[in-house]
Amino acid sequence: MIRSTLRRAALAPLAAATLAAATVGLAGTASAAPAAGFETLTPVCSAQLPITHPGCVAGTSYRGAPLPDGTPNQIVQLSGDDRFATAAAIAEHGFPEADVAVLVSGEDRHLVDALSAAPLARSLAAPVLLGTRDSVPAATASYLQKHQVKAVLLVGGADALGEATTGRLQALGVTSVARVAGVDRYATSRALVALMPKSTHGWAASGEDAHLVDALAASGPAARLAEPLLLVADADPLPAAASLTALGVTSTTVAGGPEGVAPEALAPLPAPQRAAGTDRYGTAAGLAAESVDRGVDADDLLFAPGVTGHLVDALAAGPLGRATLLVGDVDSSYDVVEAWFDTYGAGRVTAVGAVEIDG
């Protein structure tokens, strides 16, 4: 694991207090009235949802992550021994009660399949967990068993999550397993978005390998606002535009500059506006600021790795629904963090995966 060596000036307001221990061991069955001091997650299921969601059938609400208590300078560290354990730790924090989970591939080459999954997962009161083509890793299996998860939605084709993975889920007691996949990454993204609730605003990002990080930075805000996040193909943007329009979207925040989503791909989207910086860190900050303008809490911030090879941690953190800054050992990352704290102050900061904060 890498260690983020952020300048102390950037993190000077943050004390070395860790709340992670307070978020462990909160497993339980769904509640009619979730406990005070926690988010309440109420699933919104479309008629097209291919799994049976117990919460939608019974009208259940679930306890979510602890709410910020207003105390400044809090740090929550969520990480595990590997990416699968990190995703499970994030799930325990954000979804201490769950009947449903969304399973995506934890392999880097299939990262793109799940970029649109975070908003859907949160709308289902479900965490994003990681699997492999042929197995359910121990940390993922432990979460599913501990919470007695009954339904799992697979994202991606059989090359990402194969039949052996499906069989293992059934052996773990999962009674409803279904898959959302398309002929390519863009079709998979559209299939996920089609299961989202209606929204007047949406988010769009490049589906090209070199720019996937922009979609990761947008996933938390889109999830919090229950808005779709769609991958756009420069060569054929019309299907993405049609998908957004079908959901009622009348305005679109586009992640990144023209090197990611080309002008000709941006034009057909409903009332597009870019949120972009000079690099991935600046773009993430622009997206975070846009999300705050739209109602996301500036005092409940997520730090996720912006370094290639560790981006999967941001994928699992998307359903937490927080404004997200990407962190890396470069000056532009440090500058973005400093500017954020100068503008918004320091409330609760949650660092996931390879990001470690020293107070």
What brief labels describe this structure?
Cell wall-binding repeat-containing protein, TAT_signal, 4-stranded parallel β-sheet, single chain, about 350 residues, about 20% strand, alpha/beta, disordered N terminus, Cell_wall-bd_2, Bact_Sporulation_Assoc, 14 strands, globular
Give the gist of this structure:
The chain is an alpha/beta fold.
Note poorly predicted spans. 1-29
Count of helical segments? 13
Q: Helical proportion?
A: 25-40%
Strand segment count:
14
Q: Mean pLDDT across all residues, rounded?
A: 90
Signal peptide: 1-32
InterPro entries: Bact_Sporulation_Assoc, Cell_wall-bd_2, TAT_signal
Pfam families: CW_binding_2 (PF04122)
Keywords: Signal
Explained architecture:
The chain has 359 residues and is α/β, with parallel strands linked by helices. 32% of the residues lie in helices and 19% in strands. The chain has one domain (8-45, 52-352). The protein has helices spanning 8-11, 54-58, 83-94, 117-123, 138-146, 163-171, 185-193, 212-224, 238-246, 263-266, 280-293, 312-317, 331-344, and strands spanning 38-41, 62-66, 74-78, 100-105, 128-131, 151-155, 176-180, 201-206, 229-232, 251-255, 272-275, 300-305, 323-327, 348-352. The strands form four sheets. It has a four-stranded parallel beta sheet. A four-stranded parallel beta sheet has the order 5-4-6-7. The chain has a four-stranded parallel beta sheet with strand order 9-8-10-11, sandwiched between helices. Helix 8 (212-224) links the parallel strand 8 (201-206) and strand 9. The longest helix has 14 residues, at 280-293. The chain is globular and about 50 Å long. The model is unreliable at 1-29 (pLDDT under 50). This is Cell wall-binding repeat-containing protein. InterPro entries: Bact_Sporulation_Assoc (IPR051922), Cell_wall-bd_2 (IPR007253), TAT_signal (IPR006311). Keywords: Signal.
